[in-house]
Specification:
The chain is an all-alpha fold and 153 residues long. It has one domain. Helices cover 75% and strands 0% of the residues. Helix 3 packs across helix 7 and helix 6 packs antiparallel against helix 7. The protein is globular, with a radius of gyration of 15 Å.
Length: 153
């Protein structure tokens, strides 16, 4: 069972990459997202809710398996963050790249309340929530930037 938990929490081991596991996990997330992007919105939202629950459970368990608080190799949170970011994303590869970059920026810089969530919530909920909030920031940023790009081009 531990192997299954670790496989899920690490994004099928994409988080085990030696450098920048969050970036690798976010890149990995683009693959399942690509195949889910055209789901009807209610199904997409239910998928994200299920991903949150699975992430909460596996991230908290994996944290215990690794015996470290919020180890970098746990990237199920980045996977959900990408799904949040790319909710209703324009059907254009440039938008997807921009969403990926915005998510990574907000995930790394951790503007308030992302930083507060990262510092004050612990266990599976803490691992997941800061990336959900970073994803919300990136979602808003992507929608605004795409609106501006559309007006300029």
């Amino acid at each position: 069972m531990d192997r299954l938990i670790v496989a899920i929490a690490t994004g099928l081991y994409s988080g085990m990459a030696p450098k920048a596991p969050g970036t690798w996990g976010s890149l990995f997330a683009l693959l399942p997202w690509f195949f889910c992007r055209n789901l009807p919105l209610p199904a997409y939202l239910m998928l994200m809710a299920a991903l949150f629950v699975v992430g909460f459970l596996t991230a908290g368990s994996a944290e215990k398996i690794f015996d470290r608080p919020d180890p970098g190799c746990i990237v199920i949170d980045e996977i959900l963050g990408i799904f949040v970011t790319l909710t209703l994303a324009p059907d254009h590869p440039l938008a997807w790249l921009l969403g990926f970059l915005l998510f990574r920026v907000f995930d790394i810089l951790k503007p308030f309340p992302v930083s507060w969530l990262d510092t004050n919530l612990h266990g599976g909920i803490g691992i997941m929530m800061d990336d959900v909030m970073a994803g919300i920031y990136a979602l808003a940023g992507l929608q605004l930037l795409w609106l501006l790009i559309g007006r300029l081009v």
